[in-house]
Design a protein that fits this description.
3 helices, about 70 residues
Length: about 70
């Protein structure tokens, strides 16, 4: 499965929007962590690594838990 840039950007926006629903978590910490994770992984070129990171973000949104 090849992940497209638009899918990754959509995931990023969904993760940022999720911060509005947080009650028991520090929102600034959550936002900082999400942004840093995407910055760290923006240079990935291997499709397996990209797929893994994308699936990790998707599973977080489904389970609502940090991995």
């Amino acid at each position: 499965m090849t992940i497209e840039r638009t899918q990754i950007l959509k995931l990023y926006k969904e993760l940022l929007r999720y911060s509005n629903t947080l009650v028991y978590t520090d929102k600034s910490y959550y936002l900082r962590r999400i942004k840093q994770k995407f910055r760290d992984n923006q240079a990935l070129s291997d499709t397996n690594d990209i797929d893994f990171c994308y699936k990790q973000g998707r599973s977080f949104l489904e389970r609502k838990r940090l991995v």
